[in-house]
Amino acid sequence: MSIVVTGATGQLGRLVVEELLERGIPAGSIVAAGRNAARLGELAERGVQTRTIDFSEPATLREAFDGAKKVLLVSGSEPGQRLDQHQNVIDAAKEAGVELLAYTSVANAGTTTMALAADHQATEAALRESGVPFTLLRNGWYLENYTAQLETFIAHGAVFGSAGEGRVSAATRADFARAAAEVLAGEDHAGKVYELGGDDAFTLGELAGAVGAAAGQPVVYTDLSEKDYSAALVAAGLPEPYAAILADSDLGIARGDLLVTSGDLATLIGRPTESMHDAVRAAFSALAGKAAQN
Ligand SMILES: NC(=O)c1ccc[n+]([C@@H]2O[C@H](COP(=O)([O-])OP(=O)(O)OC[C@H]3O[C@@H](n4cnc5c(N)ncnc54)[C@H](OP(=O)(O)O)[C@@H]3O)[C@@H](O)[C@H]2O)c1
User: What is the pTM of this model?
Assistant: First the structure.
């Protein structure tokens, strides 16, 4: 009986596989599933079973889930297709008779009105409808959404957004992955809904302050209207629909949609979550190290 991790070719799913291995789950009991076969190669060399899947091709899912005890559905990344794709995963998991299907949803899925939450809310409803035992991992924002932009923040001396004074309980992918691995490797998680976020919520103003402190130069937060922020993201090269989703998500932060106070993430991972300040310092050190090498 195996544990299947979808999205294992992506950033979060890959970390979940590593966490399972670190916990001593035998590599041969883990099935790393993703679309990009090349990225599965290194895991296969370490004895992890691998399956090439496409959420849009049910036959690939049926094959990957054959003999599975638990499946992690890492939400897909193709707007407009996710709900049908997630339904395919739910159907295949049901057919395989899995004991547990864990799903990476969005924080506060019960109440949030953020545009990007709609697919997650519909997937949660489909899970409830399916009769498959499930766990909801309602992941908050990744800290990497911010630390990956460090160079841009420093170059502009500014963080731009439309989140106002709203607080976001962001946490690292590594912490979210550890929580998912705990659910997959542990017992008694069926039927649970975990609201997952970092222990210390912060405003984008505080983020700018932390970036400035790490870089040793002033970095300010500039709050824009949703329209102006979206336009600024398009001007920076983002496709319009993606820019609109990000600006809408910042309004969600302003409303408190990405604020999580449950403490579920720290409880599941068994330690405090990595703080925004530590993540910014680590990202800055990595950048400085890279610059020194060049
Ligand atoms: N909480 C947040 O802040 C946040 C931010 C961004 C996204 N997300 C959500 O969280 C998910 C995981 O995040 P991440 O950082 O790991 O994203 P990521 O690195 O882009 O990984 C996405 C994974 O989904 C797989 N995938 C996409 N479409 C698929 C399909 N049709 N069939 C099979 N697999 C498919 C990809 O497979 P291939 O690479 O092999 O194609 C990849 O393994 C994202 O997909 C998205 O739904 C959350």
Answer: 0.98
